[in-house]
Amino acid sequence: MKYVDGFVLAVPADKKDEYRKLSAEAAPLFKEFGATRMVECWGDDVPNGKVTDFRRAVDAKDNETVVFSWIEYPSKDVRDVANQKMMSDPRMQAMGEMMPFDGKRMIFGGFMPILDV
Question: What's the pTM?
Fold first, then answer.
């Protein structure tokens, strides 16, 4: 069964093109390391909740848009190896220095799918 890394982050709205460009440049590297799919979603209908919500989860400011993304791998083992390769790859390190968002406010985690229809 597949394995999924999920991400939620806040990107300044005026940095949408920069974010998309950086994501497009990173995608081939993720695939090289074993990812089978990478999806980036720009917030369109992200309501404020009464208890919690996506915006609060990443401390999004008024000028920021919430981004929801995921990367699929064939297995957790492939994902773990990919993450090790990414951490030591100079291309990924260079991209990390150009992130058009505050990486400290990004939330992420690995997930095992339990339903895929």
Answer: 0.92
Of 60, 77, 76, nearest in space to 68 by CA:
60
Domains in the chain (CATH in brackets) are 1-65 (3.30.70.100)
Instruction: Say how far apart CA 117 and CA 110 lie, in whole Å.
Output: 20
pLDDT at 69 over 90: yes
34: region left, alpha or beta (phi > 0 left; psi from -120 to 50 alpha): left
DSSP structural state of residue 38:
E
8 Å CB contact between 72 and 2: yes
Helix, strand, coil shares of the chain as percentages rounded to 5?
40, 25, 35
